[in-house]
Design goal:
It is a single chain. The chain contains 23 helices and 27 strands. With about 750 residues, it is an alpha/beta fold. Among the domains are: about 210 residues, Rossmann fold, CATH 3.40.50.1700; about 110 residues, Immunoglobulins (Immunoglobulin-like, Sandwich). The strands form seven sheets. Strands 11-16-15-14-12-13 form a six-stranded mixed beta sheet, with helices on both faces. The protein has a five-stranded parallel beta sheet with strand order 4-3-2-1-10. α9 packs parallel to α11. It binds beta-D-glucopyranose.
């Protein structure tokens, strides 16, 4: 084994001393840059390439495994030819891997350990789509904070989250992992998550590096089929897809991950325009980009590289800094530089980016900082669960509540809880569950039993299994389409109960990566079961456990109360009971449209008008002849047990310019009998633009708490910045002209006013 050069040791000691003496100076940008340059100057080409290599450390694979055996991986770690590992879980395991580097390699550059901590590490929070329905940014920051602490407790210092892919297609399995169809909402949620993970100081032991992913356009996969081709024009790319990423870059996210898809013929991993021109140059972002799992060699399948070597050349030149388990950089990047095909400066830039993040995390000061058993000892998982319950309750969306069936009255004597997901303790944990244990959620039956008074009987019947119990990556997923043996018992129970709570929806693994579906109706026998139960009892509350919008037109017409409970995580059943019994008055709003029929997908409220907006009287307009073209439940929609009434919308003026803002004011009254929270939403429409503009776009929202009978006047300040878009000049700017302002409780039912912007 080669001994570390004395100069390196001196260099590192001087870093540590400098840090101890003056931490304020040590965290300054200049100081980090100086350290990065000093380390880089000492590195060999092979060591530099090593920093750009990421190995998988377990069998928790999300794609084809690398060709290297574990012995060879270990040897490469010892030589310092690896910059990062993912899926190494536990303080002991990360410590061991770090030791291989620290005890054996010449440069002793610590590893950074990544993991998919998407909605919690051990304490599981609602899937991101569900949590976004809370519109509660503080809550979302807090769940990320907790996830960060629990991650550090297991040696992890880098999460591959948040996923900020705008997604408008319910068929796409990964819609569960993002914030839905709106660029603004996705942006602010992304920033809240980044703040939660990273805090104010990345070197704090309890913060971890975040990843803005997947850069870019991944949510626009054709026909909602995961990994599929994306055809995205420049206008849509800039106006709808990139804003959340720009916001993440501005918020100081440490890393980006690129995406599997191509856009207009160029895979993102090989896309220089996206990664270099926009992200690294225009936005001047200094972190590093990790490829998605194997996405560098996947450019061979895409058909733009003939082998790994060419794929490496394309990827590094395009700005992909780290190769996640692709084995491409490690096998060919040094050779490409030696042959003069890739410029050393390009590799140096990538390495500097990786080192920068490592310095910021404080890894050079203490490589074992995130492998500290004391962190776990200090965690109160019980407290985390309490927070998870509150956030889960806030994420629930009430879609329908006829006859005031909800909240369930204390006088109800008997409740039948029916359905394949009623006592399912696993579905609510959802996909991308990190170390959330299988079958560890509070089920709906359990939650209801805890919540009811002693005079109410609660009985459960399965009705029919959903059937997708296969947790592996193997196909096909088995759905029960034939076994009705539980129907009789369920029907009998419904007949003899005062109220039925039907719990239907999706299994944990129906949504998520690779889980695209051409059908989004209730799978298997669930619809049939619902219809049978309805024949014997009209008092049905339908609770949906889901990772995507579902097609529920029949239920919407026939079932008096519907609650969207997503996959709410560890405390699911308790949170659902909190809402069903009125302990928490629902305040969630849909972050994504629920369609009438799957054939409407992709479906989103912020669509364009077209040259032929719908006209019910005539056939040659943009619509469907067999179904209305709008959503069954639109973006931003959600009811409360309170009643919110909106007064008229008034503006502080009708003319605006770059020096002048306008205030939009509206009064909201709670005309109901209970206190409640309303998410008041602000939308704008640029009526005439140099390119076509959406019919409306969310630009702000406020959470307003109102006691019964209380009225509050809410003001939104409309700034010139809010009016900017990526214009025909290919820059972000405001164009003079008329604008509509809309304010209301969802994207469809809105009060409006107009103003003019003059240059
Ligand atoms: C996913 C990423 C994830 C990575 C590592 C990929 O298949 O697309 O989102 O972070 O695997 O698990």
């Amino acid at each position: 084994m080669k001994k570390p050069a004395l100069s390196i040791i001196i260099l590192l000691i001087s870093f540590i001393t400098a840090n101890a003496q003056n931490s304020a100076i040590s965290s300054s940008i200049e100081n980090v840059e100086f350290k990065v340059d000093s380390v880089l100057a000492k590195m060999t080409l092979e060591e530099k390439v090593g920093q750009l290599v990421q190995y998988n450390g377990s069998w928790d694979l999300t794609g084809p495994a690398s060709e290297l055996g574990s012995k060879q991986k270990e040897n490469n770690l010892k030589k310092g030819l690896v910059g990062s590992m993912l899926n190494v879980l536990s303080v002991e395991a990360t410590r061991e891997a770090q030791k291989l580097i620290m005890d054996n390699s010449r440069m002793k550059i610590p590893l950074i350990f990544g993991y998919d901590v998407i909605h919690g590490y051990k304490t599981i929070f609602p899937v991101p789509l569900g949590e976004t329905a809370s519109w509660d940014l503080e809550a979302m920051e807090l769940s990320a904070r907790i996830a960060a602490i629990e991650s550090v407790a297991e040696g992890i210092n880098w999460t591959f989250s948040p996923m900020i892919d705008v997604s408008r297609d319910a068929r796409w399995g990964r819609i569960m992992e993002g914030s839905g169809e709106d660029p603004y909402l996705t942006s602010v949620v992304g920033v809240a998550k980044i703040k939660g993970y990273q805090g104010d100081d990345l070197s704090d032991q309890l913060t971890i590096a975040a990843t803005a992913k997947h850069f870019a356009g991944y949510g626009f996969a054709e026909a909602g089929r995961d990994y599929n081709t994306v055809n995205l024009g420049e206008n849509e790319l800039h106006n709808s897809v990139l804003p959340p990423f720009k916001a993440a870059a501005e918020a100081g996210v440490a890393t980006f991950m690129n995406s599997f898809n191509e856009i207009d013929g160029i895979p993102s991993t090989g896309n220089k325009y996206l990664q270099r021109d926009i992200l690294k140059e225009d936005w001047d972002w200094k972190g590093f980009i990790v490829s998605d799992w194997g996405s560098i060699p996947e450019m061979i399948n895409h058909g733009i590289a003939k082998d790994k070597k060419q794929a490496s050349q394309i990827a590094i030149n395009a700005g992909s800094d780290m190769d996640m388990e692709g084995g491409a950089y490690e096998s060919s990047l040094a050779e490409l530089v030696n042959e003069g095909i890739v410029d050393l400066a390009v590799v140096d830039d990538a390495v500097k980016r990786v080192l920068r993040v490592k310095f910021k995390l404080g890894l050079f000061d203490d490589p074992y900082k995130y492998a500290d058993p004391a962190v776990k000892k200090n965690i109160s998982y019980e407290d985390h669960r309490k927070t998870a319950r509150t956030i889960a309750a806030k994420s629930i969306v009430l879609l329908k509540n006829e006859k005031d069936l909800l909240p369930i009255k204390a006088s109800v004597k008997s409740i039948a809880v029916i359905g394949p997901l009623a006592n399912d303790k696993d579905a609510p944990i959802g996909n991308w569950r990190a170390q959330g244990e299988a079958n560890s959620a509070v089920s709906v039956v359990e939650g209801i039993k805890i919540a009811v008074g002693k005079d109410t009987k609660v009985k459960y019947a399965l009705g029919a299994t959903l059937g997708i119990s296969e947790r592996s990556f193997l196909l096909p997923l088995e759905i029960n389409k034939t076994d009705r043996s539980g129907f009789k018992e369920a029907i009998e129970l419904a007949k003899n109960s005062e109220l039925v709570v039907m719990v239907l929806g999706e299994d944990a693994f129906q949504a998520g990566e690779g889980r695209s579906q051409a059908k989004i109706s209730l799978a298997g026998l669930q619809q049939e079961l619902l219809e049978e139960i309805k024949k014997v009892n009209n008092n049905i509350v339908l609770v949906l456990i889901n990772g995507r919008p579902l097609e529920i037109s029949w239920a919407s017409e026939n079932i008096p109360a519907i609650v969207v409970a997503w996959q709410l995580g560890t405390e699911s059943g308790n949170a659902i009971a909190d809402v069903l019994f009125g302990k928490y008055n629902p305040s969630g709003k849909l972050p994504v449209s629920f369609p009438r029929l799957v054939g409407q997908e992709p479906l989103y409220y912020n669509q364009k008008n077209t040259g032929r907006p719908s006209n019910d009287q005539h056939v040659t307009y943009s619509h469907y002849t067999d179904v209305k073209k709008d959503a069954l439940y639109p973006f931003g929609y959600g009811l409360s047990y309170a009643q919110f009434e909106y007064g008229s919308l008034s503006l502080s003026g009708t003319e605006m310019n770059s020096e002048k803002e306008i205030e939009a004011t509206i009064t909201i009254t709670n005309a109901g009998k209970v206190k409640g929270r309303e998410v008041v939403q602000l939308y704008l429409q640029d009526i005439v633009g140099s390119t076509t503009r959406p019919v409306k776009e969310l630009k702000g929202f406020q959470l307003v708490d109102l006691a019964p009978g209380e009225a509050k006047t809410i003001t939104f300040t409309i700034t010139p910045k809010m009016l900017e878009f990526y214009t025909a000049n290919k820059i972000w700017e405001v164009e003079a002209g008329d604008f509509n302002v809309f304010v209301g409780g969802n994207s469809r039912d809105l009060k409006s006013a107009e103003f003019t912007f003059k240059n």
